[in-house]
Specification:
homodimer; alpha+beta; 5-stranded mixed sheet; 3-stranded antiparallel sheet; 6 helices; 12 strands; about 25% helix
Chain lengths: ~260, ~260
């Protein structure tokens, strides 16, 4: 048997507006691509369209920066109104340098700018102004809701949904896709205690499967437009189970690099 | 047009021994999978089989640990002979904790244990003893050699080769595939200065494309055996060019997390 992992960018997803129904958009696009959901399939949604559908847009004209935001804004050489939003989304500021604010997001992961995004963002239809986009309030819950809708519509029992975003890394250039929200997939694959080929215990023991799927989808999504924000994935070579993006977050006490 | 990224695990790759010809093994496996290489395709090779084919196996009985290796071994609670090999492969030790040695590898990237691997490793055919496996001496050169061989055999002009490995991350649980060696692929995709959909300049500007491809392949390779160590990739939605894994290494002066 030949193992194959196939990622298909669903065609015809329009620019998403607050209130849009992503499950319906995905189902229509699946039909257009002539892909029928099967047991074990996954869909990866770009964070950006999930956030937009959930109305996570903020008009910068409505933001009054605090004294702290003004101060961090000076260090980071960034708009203090954007900093105010970043601080509001963060549990802790990890590093500030010109152009960079690294934080622990309130959801637990470490990332740049708390995921507050300025590019490819415009306000709700017909509204002018300078808008930014925050991450979904609860990406795991967003993923679970999408999964439940898709499972019901497709008449399958086992389906995964991942919400992905592009994150920088501590020591490597370039962003890679990571999983912000997960439903129906082992985010972390625990191989601890499994013997290796030669009966020694495996050294590499936990695999960030949802991050690898998120990265694969990200390679196909592209970055400069929103043309391919939903990716269908077939052939994940592991059984699905319930899962959460929280599995991927290193406990602070075990983190050597804060 | 529907964009599709298809990863195929090449079947029938045997356990690799020092001196084995990976290009020939891959070509035979491609024929067996009835995949004909096309312009723009990529092959991803697991580091482990590249290292083995290059004879990067070391018998621990032949290693005499230095005083420094004994000391680090005590801190890390690891075999000082393994530490000796790790230090020999490293430019700098970044962190030591029980069970963990994080180093800057002599190739420039930061990783655990300098990639010195103890699991799924046995000695050359017929030899007993306790063996470990080092990373290829020059993974970019290994990738380029494989690419050149495959390009000639397949009669195409544009083909990518990636050598991948599983790395831990600073703040996230689980390993993900990353690119150790690259030929014929933009390791880093530079989108700086490209306008976004709404004519603002893109905020996320450099994408670790080779790492995303490496992660996708890693999801299909699995971990517990060597059954799927070569992955064929079709449909990378960017033009190929020359590239090197060095593009992915953050310059030390820009690194906030050492």
């Amino acid at each position: 048997m030949v193992h194959r992992l196939t990622l298909t960018a669903l065609p015809g997803i329009p620019l998403v507006e607050p209130g849009d129904d992503l499950a319906s958009l995905a189902l229509r696009a699946l039909a257009q691509a002539e892909v029928r959901l099967e047991e074990g399939d996954a869909l990866v949604f770009a964070q950006k369209i999930v956030s937009k559908s959930e109305g996570r847009l903020v008009d910068l004209a409505t933001v009054s920066p605090s004294a702290r935001a003004e101060e961090v804004g000076r260090q980071a050489e960034k708009d203090p109104r954007v900093i105010e939003l970043i601080l509001g989304e963060s549990a802790q500021v990890v590093r500030v340098r010109p152009g960079v604010v690294i934080v622990e997001h309130r959801l637990g992961f470490v990332c740049a700018n708390a995921g507050v995004d300025h590019s490819n963002v415009r306000g709700p239809s017909g509204q002018t102004g300078e808008w930014v986009l925050l991450l979904p309030r609860d990406p795991d819950a967003s993923a679970a809701e999408l999964r439940d809708r898709l499972v019901r519509a497709a008449g399958v029992t086992s389906l995964a949904v991942v919400i992905n975003d592009s994150h920088g890394r501590a020591w490597r250039n370039g962003t890679v896709g990571v999983a912000l929200g997960v439903a129906g997939l082992p985010a972390l694959l625990d191989l601890r205690g499994r013997p290796d080929l030669f009966d020694r215990m495996l050294q590499v023991t936990q695999v960030g499967l949802a991050d690898e799927i998120a990265a694969a989808a990200s390679a196909l999504m592209g970055q400069a437009d929103e043309g391919r924000p939903v990716i269908h994935v077939r052939g994940i070579p592991y059984p699905l189970r319930e899962g959460t993006a929280a599995e991927l977050i290193r406990e602070k006490s075990l983190d050597l690099f804060r």
